[in-house]
Write a sequence for this structure.
């Protein structure tokens, strides 16, 4: 192979009057080759295409094309792991070269980064996902990913939930603190309604939800709001959403919400938190081991703030709390009872005495009946289960449709009974 520099040397020697034989000896070439390049002049040599290398990747080319066509955002690392499970023992670089051929490269994004000291800050947010659980084929579910990221080490914890209400937010916070073994000094939030009750533009500040402030005081951290229209200030928690969607969520199937969270936590332990982070260039778990002593210790007991409510008992002996139904004993005399709701349980009281305690149900549209709450014979038109262990069914399944006049008569009778009492 004759390089461009050698051609220049041949032409220069020929210009100086050096013979063809001398040029050939000095260049180590045949005289015919020297004459050909002298006749051609200064023109870069043209080489034919390289012979394609036979690699292990050819066996998996169809699989890769189908995966990228179906899920174009899948990462090279994810596909490399999948190929290894299928028997591929080749390199990662040859795979990324092939992926560049079958999908366009993403345009680079440039941004100013800021780093936080160890133990200083965590960032929290929710992301929206849609999926169809194999236990309920044909029914698309909206799920939300609560994500908690330590700003220094990028240690990631998360949980998929059905709603973004305050009780869910606080339960996820407590679980994240427990999993990480400590509490950062600050937690940075987006302007979600569960965190901020209102904004006072004249005073130049926002008003935090009172229960959240009590929760933050209990755990010893300072809640902070993300600046408006400055989503990049929360980039450490928002960038992982794309990573989670592409490297974990896409191309998987889940039986139900519990299976989704089981697979997700397995992926966190085996992939996300043991990788070398692209920004810090550190293995996340090893980096977190250095940050963990800087976290504040957990409080001695759980957060027990109580939300007190009054609720009317339904005809089926159920009390509605946050969209779910909880049973009371059929010996309950009053139609209106007091409800104490915490992040973990629902307590129902009649005249100051606890008559039922239930664990909080996730999501909405569910009902829970405690064993022993249904000891009397069931009315002829009732479909509510009697006796047996605590059971859960979807709300609305046992409510019979009746004319409005019926409910009006029932209301008048109950009102008359209340006056007589």
């Amino acid at each position: 192979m004759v390089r461009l520099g050698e051609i220049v040397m041949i032409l220069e020697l020929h210009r100086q009057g050096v013979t063809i034989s001398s040029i050939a000896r000095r260049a180590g070439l045949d005289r015919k080759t020297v004459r050909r390049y002298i006749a051609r002049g200064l023109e870069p040599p043209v080489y034919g295409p390289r012979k394609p290398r036979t690699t292990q990747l050819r066996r998996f080319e169809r699989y890769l094309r189908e995966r990228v066509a179906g899920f174009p955002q899948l990462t090279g690392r994810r596909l490399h792991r999948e190929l290894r499970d299928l028997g591929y023992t080749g390199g990662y670089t040859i795979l990324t070269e092939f992926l560049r051929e079958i999908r366009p490269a993403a345009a680079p994004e440039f941004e100013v980064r800021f780093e936080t000291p160890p133990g200083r800050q965590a960032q929290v947010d929710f992301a929206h996902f849609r999926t169809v659980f194999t236990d309920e084929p044909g029914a698309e579910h909206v799920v939300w990913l609560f994500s908690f990221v330590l700003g220094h080490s990028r240690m990631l914890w998360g949980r998929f939930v059905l709603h973004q209400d305050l009780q869910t937010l606080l339960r996820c916070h407590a679980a994240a603190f427990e999993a990480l073994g400590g509490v950062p000094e600050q937690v940075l939030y987006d302007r979600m309604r569960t965190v901020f009750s209102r904004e006072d533009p004249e005073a130049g500040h926002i008003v935090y939800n009172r229960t959240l402030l009590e929760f933050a005081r209990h755990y010893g951290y300072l809640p902070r709001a993300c600046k408006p229209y400055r989503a990049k200030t929360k980039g450490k928690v928002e960038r992982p959403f794309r990573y989670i969607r592409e490297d974990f969520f896409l191309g998987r199937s889940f039986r139900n919400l519990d299976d989704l969270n089981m697979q997700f936590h397995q992926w966190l332990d085996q992939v996300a938190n043991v990788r070398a982070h692209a920004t810090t260039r550190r293995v996340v778990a090893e980096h977190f081991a250095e940050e963990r002593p800087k976290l504040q210790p957990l409080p001695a007991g759980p957060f027990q703030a109580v939300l007190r409510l009054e609720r009317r008992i339904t005809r089926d002996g159920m009390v509605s709390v946050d969209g779910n139904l909880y049973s009371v004993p059929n010996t309950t005399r009053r139609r209106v009872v007091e409800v104490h709701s915490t992040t973990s349980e629902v307590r129902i009281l009649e005249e100051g005495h606890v008559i039922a305690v239930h664990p909080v149900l996730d999501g909405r549209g569910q009902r829970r009946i405690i064993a022993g709450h249904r000891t009397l014979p069931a009315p002829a038109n009732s479909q509510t289960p009697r006796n047996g262990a605590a059971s859960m069914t979807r709300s609305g399944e046992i409510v019979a449709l009746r004319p409005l006049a019926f409910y009006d008569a029932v209301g008048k009778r109950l009102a008359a009974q209340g006056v007589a009492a």
The radius of gyration is 34 Å. The first helix runs from residue 4 to 15. DSSP finds twelve helices and 15 strands in the chain.
